[in-house]
Amino acid sequence: MNYFEVLVWPGGGVIGIILWALSFVTLGVIVELFFAIRRTNILPNAVREKMRSCLQRTPYRDAIDLAAGRADLLSQVGHAALLDSPHGYAAMERAIEETSEERTTKLLRHIEPLNLIGNISPMVGLLGTVWGMINAFFQIVQAGGIPEPGELAGAIGIALVTTLVGLGIAIPALAVYSLMRSRIDELTSEAIVSSQELVSILRPPKDAPLYGEPM
After folding, report:
1. Measured between alpha carbons, how far is 18 from 7 in angstroms, rounded to an integer?
2. Can you give the residue ranges of every domain in the chain?
3. Closest-CA residue to 202 (of 215, 214, 193, 211)
4. Are 84 and 92 in contact (CB under 8 A)?
5. What is the pLDDT of residues 49-107, one digit of tens each?
6. Residues 1-36 pLDDT 10s
7. Contact 185/40 with Cβ under 8 angstroms?
8. Could you tell me which of 213, 198, 193 has the C-alpha nearest to residue 87?
9. How far apart are the C-alpha atoms of 98 and 80, rounded to whole Å?
C-alpha cells in the first residue's frame, strides 16, 4: 500500500476526507485574502487625494458624498468623522477612533479562519496517526504477536503521513495568517493617520468654532 493512499478517498476514510477538505479550504481562503487585504481596498490613494481636494474648499459636502457608500476603510472612517463635524473637532477624532477600531476588528475576523485551520489541521493529522497506530497494533494481535515486518512498517508509515499532511496544511495557513495580520495592522494604522490628517484641514484656529453643518 502506498503511504499517500491515506489521502485518497475511500482509502483514507473520514480522516482523508477531512484533510482534503481542509487543504482546499485553506487554499481558497489564502487566495481570497490576497485579493481582499490590499492597499486599494483599505487605503486607496486616489480616494485620499480626492477627499483632500474636497476638504480644502468649503462647503465640504462633496467630501461626505465621496466617502459615502464606499467599502474601503479610509472612506468609512472619514465619512464617520465628517458626519460628526458639527459637534466639534474632538467628536471627529472620537469618530475616527471608534470607526477604525470597528473596521479593524472586522478585518481581523476575516482572517481568523486561517488561524482556526492552522490549529485544527495538526490535531486532525494526529488523530489519523493514533488511529493508524491502533490498527497497526491490531495487526500484531491478529498475527499472533509476530507480524510481517514489511506490513507493520507500512501500516505505521501510512499512519504517520496524516500528521505530515496536517502540518503541511497548518504551516502555510499560520504563515499567511501572520502575514495578513501584519498587513492589516500596517494598512489600518496608515489609514487612521491619513484620516486624521484629512480632518485636520477642518481644524479651526484656537478658540474659533468649527464649521457648522456641512453644506
Report:
1. 9
2. 3-202
3. 211
4. yes
5. 888 888 877 666 778 888 887 888 888 888 888 888 888 888 888 999 999 999 999 99
6. 444 555 544 445 678 788 888 999 999 999 999 998
7. no
8. 213
9. 9
Task: Tell the residue number behind the cell numbers 493529522, with chain if given.
Answer: 125
Q: Tell whether omega for the bond before 10 is within 30 degrees of 0, i.e. cis.
A: yes
| pTM for the model | 0.79
Helix/strand/coil (H/E/C) assignment for every residue in 26-94: HHHHHHHHHHHCCHHHHCCHHHHHHHHHHHCCCCCHHHHHHHCCCCCHHHHHHHHHHHCHHHCHHHHHH
* Distance spanning both ends of the chain, measured CA to CA: 76
Q: What is the pLDDT of residues 174-204, one digit of tens each?
A: 999 999 999 999 999 998 898 888 888 877 6
Cβ neighbour number for residue 24 with a 10 Å cutoff: 11
CA atoms of 173 and 153, how far apart (whole Å) = 31
175-184 burial: b if 16+ Cβ within 10 Å, else e: ebbebbbebb
Cα separation, 114 vs 111, whole angstroms: 6
